Each structure stands twice: as C-alpha cells, then as structure tokens.
Structure prediction request, 371 residues.
Amino acid sequence: MIERQNPVLPDKIVPETVMRLLVHQTKARRLIDPPCRGQHVIGPQCDLPIAGGPCKLDAFPHQLCPDPMPAGTRINQENAQLRRALFTSHTEDAPDRLTVKLRNPCGRPTRNMAAGVVYDDLHDECLEGRIPAFGTPRNTRSDFRQRKRDRSRYAHIVNKLNTPLEPYQTHTPIDPAILYWGTPVVLISTTNPDGTPNLAPMSSAFWMGRSAVLGLGLSSHTAQNILRTRECVLNLPSIDQVEMVDRLALTTGAQEVHPWKQAAGYRHHAEKFELAGATPVPSDTVGAPRIQETPVAMEATLVADYISDMHLLTMHVQRVHVHETIRLGSHANRIDPDRWRPLIMSFQNYYGLGDQVLPSKLATIPEDHYR
Prediction:
C-alpha cells in the first residue's frame, strides 16, 4: 500500500515508499509508525531501540501519561526526527541542523543543583520538549536560544557549586581561652576605701545608648570600688595615650594580690595616676577624678550588677567630657568619627582605627533620633 498523502507545504519534499501493514494495523503514518495494539511507542532508551508500552509507570510525575491512540499531523506540524550522524543520499527526510540529540530521560544529573533553582539536565532531553504541541506553531530556533540563555543565567551558580572550596573559605572549630575580638580600651577611675584615686585599664565594655556594660573579674579591685561607691569615670584613651595605658598593665590597687594575678605577674601599686603619667581632674557629678589627657571622659553611676563567673556592671553615663579636637564642627553634641581614633585592644595587643572602608547607611539616621 502507498502511504496516504496529507497536505504539505509547497517546498517540502515528501518521500514515496512502501509501508508494510500488520494484520491488526488500521492505517500508517508518514516517517514514524504510530503505536498500535501490541506495539510499543518510539522513544529514547538506554539499551532498547523501542521504549516500553504506554502506561503510568513509563511517565514521570510531572508528565501526562502517553496517549495510546496515534495522533494525526497538521499542516503546520512536522514529525519528530531522530538525529543521525550519517545518512544515505536517498534519505530525503534527514534532520536539519537544529535537531537536538535525544538523550536518556532516566539519566541522573551529573552536577550539583542549588535549592530552588531549576536547571536543564544535559542528560534529560525528553521527546516532547522538541515536538510542538497540537495547534502550537513550531519555533525550534527560539526554544534553542531560550535554553541557551537559561544555562548562561545560572552558569555562575553552577561554577561555584562545582568549584572546590579553598582553605580560607572553610571554618575550623577551635576553643580560644579569650574572646578579645577588638574593643576600645577604657581607663576606669574609682575611689579607694582610703579616699585615694585608683586607675585600671580594661577593654571588656559594651555601649548601648547612654548605658555601658562593664565586664570585670570577681577579684577585681576596681569592681569592689564601684560596688561600694556606685560610681566611676570611664576615660577613653586614643592611640596617643597607648604608653600611658601600657604602664598600668600587670598592676593592681589591691594590697593583697589574688593568687591568679600573682601567677600572671601582677604586682600591687597604690599611686596609679602617678605611675601612668595621667593628670587627675575633678569630676562634676561623681567623686572619682577624670583624666585630663584622654579625649573622652564619662561620669557614670551604677545601675545593676549581674554576677556569674564575673561582674557584669551596668553603668548609666550622666556627664560626657570631650576634647575640642574630636568634635564635629557643625554640631555641638556630635563626635567627628574621622578625627576620633580610639585605642583598640585585640587579643591583648594594641591597635588603632584605619580609614573609613565604606559609607554607612545607618549614618543617615540623625543621632538626635536616639534620644
């Protein structure tokens, strides 16, 4: 029997060949035999040239079950072609250059996938992705370009997922004895029981609004003075006073040095202001003196004390004194961050601030908004 001719385009060449009909077969189609009773559908497969019969087990969860009835072609629709590397001269229906090689739809992806991002699996070229639906104009070139754009869009993500991490990009669990990540040094001036002034350096301070939280050891002489008088002065040195701060290192105002401090090399010294080379100046609201040389001096009173393995003292700052050199000229109550260079202690070593690394969006909020 000669194959029935369907309507074709004027420039399309239709092969004429003899098609064999089975006893139970009703009619034939061009180029690809349709599925009939007992016959499997044509499709990509790992080993078998013929795919399994149409049933629910042959369909993926996101796919519709194949229709066991053959579908007719339309005038604007071409039949699916399997690409071949070589073809004979009399094969007039060979695929064109846009035909994409069919792959195994059951193949597993060979790359990492980011959660929430849909990728094209290079081993998953399903047949229906290359055959336009009934009534939909064929646009193979547009589909090819879109898939190429999608691959380029997520290429940087895939490259990061496939790139081995360098040692500096990974974390290693450690157990540091101290967590001095870098905070300003504070010289706390207090009053001893005999009325003499005491001066002690520390850097475990946290600031919030008009409050300061100080972390001091349970055996700290400064902590005992604050708990007794409920006041102190928090002096903030700049990098210019680093030698003043270092002179006070490994000293304590307590006459009986704690055994732990003795083992660390601490010694008793009563005249701390004289040892540091600091000039005491009377305060306005508290009895402890402030330091004349430090650019910042804050008079504070005790609000609360939380005791764990140390004293966590919450202090309320009620008077702030600053040098004119660090004031922001256009604002009476603001500090110029480009001129204020606090002394920083990071893991028991002294450091200063560098230049501004990035303008802060938070700085757009007026400071008076926090009052």
Observations:
- The helical segments are 140-153, 155-162, 221-229, 242-247, 259-264, 272-276.
- Residues 125 and 349 are 62 Å apart (CA to CA).
